[in-house]
Design goal:
Length: about 450
């Protein structure tokens, strides 16, 4: 059982890696689900490019929903880890169950609203004709996995707060592998047994994988911890702080997805080949982000614990280590991407026109990786500290003042996908730099005054 315990606040590379590596593997499962759909759909014999474009559009909207409500993980992890560091976990023992109940209830409301409005939603992304029809069909199946995804995310947040990323890693690996298997079976079919369902098969595969992950999450949280998953009244006193965190992260995530909306909308406007190429590029960018997110998760988990223990000196030492490791990972990702530049594209499409557009911009995504490392790692640290309001303000600034004006200007200049990813690069810089400055200013001051 994972229970209350007293741990040394001295942070070592071994301790960081013990949390970061499983979190990295766990985090990669999310983009792998999307990349698997993209790779398998992109190589179908029927309507491959159209279906790939539809997956990209729906993926953007679905990611928005998950990122908005999936902030439960960060909020739960922040509160649990701070109480863990203060050796007072009993005070928030019932919080995760209450959070899970609230967030899954909200997901059912969202399904009820978005299901009948799917066509209107994807028309806002400039989808039309066969792309629109495929988008609606894909979404109206995949959305039923939404509550199961949010349940799993909340359980992952609880484990992170308990300084454990091992069980989420196991669940994520099983979920990713099962999704790949389901994809092959349902997209291509098994002759004489299961008909080929094409893009709808990919949607069913995702839902089945999400249900399996939710079942495993319930099993491990009950078996390996003393945290209940059945919500009971009265509400925990920390539910108010949890709700404020979620509200700030909600606004922040809306700003984040506003950037993704404009990027997807412009890519769709440029034509079928552009949105297909953008789908490959953005999913690979997400993969790089989640690889880096392993160390961002370690920062999230450990910063909350160190803050709870009021060990500010170790907190600064942690940030210094995370910067070095994160940048190193960013350069490794960029280097591997450069080595396998052309083979990577061919995994996801055999359409030469799509690949030509993808290869034109893939180098920008690779160059962004070290910058992404800094932004994502300090994003994780600030979530662990519970500084959600500042994160909200930084995202509002970087999206409204930096990304949107730049992407409209590059559209006016007819830079197409070049312009979209130039805007993303400046957006990442505007996200990361203020966080680093704020963190060092705040905690160096606290160390001096201690």
């Amino acid at each position: 059982m994972l229970r209350i315990g007293t741990l040394s606040t001295k942070i070592t590379l071994k301790q960081i890696n013990k949390l970061a590596i499983p979190a990295l593997i766990s985090g990669v499962s999310e983009p792998i689900l999307s990349l698997t759909d993209a790779a398998i759909i992109g190589n179908m014999e029927i309507n491959a490019t159209t279906s790939l474009a539809a997956v990209g559009i729906v993926g953007t909207f679905f990611s928005m929903l998950i990122w908005v409500l999936g902030q439960t993980r960060s909020a739960i992890s922040s509160i649990i880890s701070q109480y863990f560091g203060a050796n007072n976990l009993k005070a928030v023992k019932n919080l995760p169950a209450q959070a899970i109940f609230l967030i899954t209830s909200l997901s059912l409301i969202i399904i009820a609203i978005t299901y009948p409005l799917a066509k209107s939603i994807f028309e806002l992304y400039n989808a039309s004709g066969q792309i629109l029809e495929s988008s609606v069909g894909y979404y109206q199946i995949r959305v039923f996995g939404f509550p199961f995804t949010l349940f799993t995310i909340a359980v992952f947040g609880t484990f992170r707060g308990l300084q454990n990323t091992y069980y989420p890693m196991l669940i994520a690996i099983i979920g990713a592998l099962s999704n790949i298997i389901f994809d092959f079976i349902l997209v291509y079919g098994i002759q004489g047994y299961i008909p080929a369902l094409h893009i709808k098969g990919a949607a069913y595969a995702s839902v089945l994988a999400q249900i399996l992950m939710a079942i495993l999450s319930a099993y491990y949280i009950l078996k390996k911890t003393n945290i209940p998953i059945m919500a009971k009244l009265p509400f925990n006193p920390e539910i108010k702080r949890f709700s404020l965190m979620i509200l700030n992260l909600f606004v922040r995530t809306i700003a984040l997805n506003l950037a993704l909306y404009f990027a997807t909308s412009f890519a769709t406007k440029y034509g079928e080949n552009y949105i297909a190429a953008y789908t490959i590029a953005i999913n690979l960018w997400f993969l790089g982000a989640f690889l880096i997110d392993g160390y961002a998760s370690a920062g999230n988990i450990l910063s909350g614990k160190l803050l709870g223990a009021k060990d500010y000196e170790s907190l600064i030492d942690l940030s210094n280590k995370l910067i070095k490791y994160g940048i190193a990972i960013g350069f490794i990702i960029a280097t591997l991407g450069a080595i396998f530049y052309y083979p990577i594209g061919k995994i996801f499409s055999n359409d030469k026109t799509v690949l030509d557009e993808f290869y034109k911009v893939f180098w920008i995504i690779l160059c962004m990786q070290p910058l992404c490392a800094l932004a994502f790692i300090f994003d994780g640290v600030f979530k662990g500290l519970g500084r959600m309001k500042y994160l909200r303000n930084v995202l509002l600034f970087s999206t409204l003042i930096v990304f949107i004006p730049v992407v409209f200007w590059t559209d006016y200049m007819n830079l197409k996908l070049y312009g979209i990813f130039i805007a993303f690069t400046l957006w990442i810089i505007a996200r990361g730099l203020p966080l680093i400055i704020k963190f060092r200013k705040t905690f160096k001051s606290l160390v001096q005054n201690t």
